Amino acid sequence: QVRLVESGGGLVLPGGSLRLSCAVSGRSTSDYRMAWFRQVPGKEREFVAALGKGGGTIYADDSVRGRFSVSRDNAKNTVYLQMNELKPEDTALYYCAAGRDVPVIPTILRMSGKYDFWGQGTQVTVSS
Q1: In whole angstroms, what is the distance from residue 23 CA to residue 42 CA?
Q2: Rounded to whole angstroms, how far apart are CA atoms 56 and 71?
Q3: Please, are residues 32 and 98 in contact by the beta-carbon 8 Å criterion?
Q4: Taking a C-beta distance cutoff of 8 angstroms, is the pair 95, 121 a contact?
Q5: Cα-based angle 91, 122, 37 (whole degrees, multiple of 5)
Q6: Which residues of the chain form beta strands (DSSP E)?
Q7: Residue 83 — very low, low, confident or very high, per pLDDT cuts 50/70/90?
Q8: 58 neighbors 104 (Cβ within 8 angstroms)
Q9: Distance CA 18, CA 118 (A)
């Protein structure tokens, strides 16, 4: 049984930063393709960024590229989403996801249905 638990969300001013954490138990993060998604009420869950096997961001959505990055701490079996230069439109419920077989093809990385395990989400609100 794989369990993902997100934390680190909160209220932040525009231009600020937050780091989300995704603690994984049951299996190593290196056994899966790890990614972050986000969702706002009334809209589809959307892809944010995915982690490469080397430990860095392998692909990120255009809306966050250059501002958000993904990393991993193997000792803690935890994946992070560092979010800088936050904007009000980044406000969403952020989810961590793990997929057994998700190839490094952007159109597939973006498909939420390709991921097998999900956390409960952590709310990020960017507002003045």
Answers
A1: 27
A2: 5
A3: yes
A4: yes
A5: 70
A6: 3-7, 10-12, 18-25, 33-39, 46-51, 57-60, 68-73, 78-83, 92-99, 117-118, 122-126
A7: very high
A8: yes
A9: 20
| Residue 75 structure tokens | 């000792």
Q: Which residues contact 20 (CB under 8 A, 6 or more apart)?
A: 6, 7, 8, 9, 36, 80, 81, 83, 94, 96, 122, 124
| pLDDT tens for each residue of 5-53 | 999 999 999 999 999 999 999 999 999 999 999 999 999 999 999 998 7
Amino acid at 95: Y
- Residue 45: which residues within 8 A CB-CB, separation 6 or more? 37, 38, 39, 95, 112
- Residue 76: pLDDT over 80: yes
Q: Give the amino acid at 89.
A: E
Q: Look up residue 76 and give its two tokens.
A: 């803690």
CB-based contact 46:31 (threshold 8 Å): no
Enter the tokens of residue 46: 């959307």
